[in-house]
Specification:
Shape: elongated
CATH topology: Nuclear Transport Factor 2, Chain: A
CATH architecture: Roll
Number of strands: 4
Structural class: alpha+beta
Distance between the termini: 26 Å
CATH superfamily: Protein of unknown function DUF3889
Strand content: 35-45%
Order of helices and strands: HHHEEEE
Helix content: 25-40%
């Protein structure tokens, strides 16, 4: 389980890093990890942790941030994770995390499995 978590976290971080390659600040500008991490990073970690708890025998092999739907009171952060089961079959799971815009408290998490 710890190995899966480490690999999954590494997958999220590498996805974030790849997304930032084109927006790296000039060398003379100092930046912190908080300034580099995209706004969805917190929700991405939560999606990964919840998927690993929901499917403990599967490995997360891909991660995609689909986007955010912003509402007046709540917003939804959307992800698609691709998993490999113990029998080597693969499937996707859409994860929609609904949260309060003011408090960032999670209101709901929905999971939808897909074979595409």
């Amino acid at each position: 389980m710890k190995t899966k978590l480490a690999v999954s976290v590494l997958l999220v971080l590498s996805t974030i890093a790849v997304g930032k390659v084109l927006t790296v600040p000039p060398e003379d500008e100092a930046t912190s990890a908080e300034e580099i991490a995209p706004a969805y990073a917190k929700w991405g970690r939560m999606a990964m942790q919840n998927i690993m708890a929901k499917y403990p025998s599967a490995d997360v092999i891909d991660y995609l941030h689909i986007g955010r739907e912003v509402g007046t009171v709540t917003s939804v952060e959307k992800f698609k994770l691709w998993l490999r089961a113990e029998d080597n079959s693969e499937f996707g799971v859409y994860v929609d995390i609904t949260f309060n815009n003011q408090t960032e408290e999670v209101v709901d998490i929905k999971y939808t499995e897909t074979n595409q």
